[in-house]
Amino acid sequence: MAVFEDLTSKQQAAILALMQQPTVSAAAQAAGCGERTLYRWLQEYAFQQAYREARREAVTQALTQLQQLAGEAVRTLAEVLRDPESSSASKVSAAKLILDYGCRDNFEERLQELEQRLQELDLKKGGREAWQKAAVVMGNENE
Q: What is the pLDDT of residues 95-109, one digit of tens each?
């Protein structure tokens, strides 16, 4: 990644250690630098950018892994729900998870559609008028 090019190998090791260790002190020790040095690096713009990018990449990788397991998770919940030997509590838990996430996804989809419609109205009819109509639609007529 381009943001790491400006960092020394010790700073790159410190970023990796920050990602893996529970404290700055432990990260400094793991990276082989002083704690005060690491705190000073954390104040530098280039180091902050590289650290932020490393964290962003870690989150992206974790989300990708979750997405890859989602189908298996749904199949497992369905198996629990359909298994005649599953306890009632297990079936209720599985059903609740399926409904919660299914409804949440539907809600988020509908919210995105409404936001898109609002933007279209805003472009077609002018800002204030579109927002007033949106407030009426959403039941908040005092806006």
A: 888 777 776 766 777
